[in-house]
């Protein structure tokens, strides 16, 4: 089961949701528990902006749109070691957040949340951008 959830989080395949076991049970609930927002009503989804000839596109793996006027923008990364946010990737993240803000029209507070296999490496970019970092240990405890 742990492997199935991890693979679903990394986008390799989707766990079939049934009336008895909705997908949120496997993904939404454990992520909210790890973020300590289990009591906050939210809607989980993904988001994509195709871009244009003059504007780059953007894709967000998982959004937790919360009733408390906040949105967790979740980047899901698989790596065999702690994931590194370098200068180039930090620019991509900033562009992604700006594209979401501009194209969604949302005025909610945005929290950039990483869901990774082994966490994030300590870099200046992690300190500047990452509001939360959830590891598979936190999900599978």
Biggest pleated sheet? 5 strands, mixed
What is the total domain count?
A: 1
Helix content: 25-40%
Distance between the termini: 13 Å
SS content category:
alpha/beta
Total helix count? Answer: 6
Order of helices and strands: HHHEEEHEHEH
Condensed summary:
This protein is of the alpha/beta class. It has helices spanning 2-9, 23-26, 28-34, 87-104, 124-129, 136-140; strands spanning 42-49, 58-66, 70-77, 109-116, 132-135. α4 (87-104) links the parallel β3 (70-77) and β4 (109-116).
Keywords:
single chain, 141 residues, alpha/beta, five-stranded mixed beta sheet, globular
Describe the structure.
The protein is an alpha/beta fold and 141 residues long. The chain has a single domain, classed as Trna Endonuclease, Chain: A, domain 1, CATH 3.40.1350. The chain has helices at 2-9, 23-26, 28-34, 87-104, 124-129, 136-140, and strands at residues 42-49, 58-66, 70-77, 109-116, 132-135. Strands 1-2-3-4-5 form a five-stranded mixed sheet, sandwiched between helices. α5 links the parallel β4 (109-116) and β5 (132-135). The radius of gyration is 15 Å and the shape is globular. The chain starts with a helix and ends with a helix.
List the helices and strands and how they pair.
Blueprint: H1 2-9, H2 23-26, H3 28-34, E1 42-49, E2 58-66, E3 70-77, H4 87-104, E4 109-116, H5 124-129, E5 132-135, H6 136-140
Parallel strand pairs: 3-4, 4-5
Antiparallel strand pairs: 1-2, 2-3
């Amino acid at each position: 089961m742990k492997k199935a959830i991890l693979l679903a989080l990394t986008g390799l395949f989707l766990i079939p949701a049934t009336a008895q076991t909705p997908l949120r049970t496997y993904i939404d609930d454990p992520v909210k528990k790890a973020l300590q927002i289990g009591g906050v009503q939210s809607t989980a989804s993904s988001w994509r902006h195709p871009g244009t000839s003059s504007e780059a596109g953007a894709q967000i793996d998982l959004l937790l749109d919360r009733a408390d006027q906040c949105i967790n923008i979740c980047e899901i990364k698989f790596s065999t070691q702690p994931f590194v946010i370098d200068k180039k990737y930090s620019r991509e993240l900033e562009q992604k957040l700006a594209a979401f803000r501009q194209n969604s029209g949302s005025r909610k507070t945005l929290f950039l949340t990483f869901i990774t296999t082994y966490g994030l490496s300590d870099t200046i970019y992690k300190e500047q951008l990452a509001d939360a970092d959830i590891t598979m240990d936190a999900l599978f405890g």
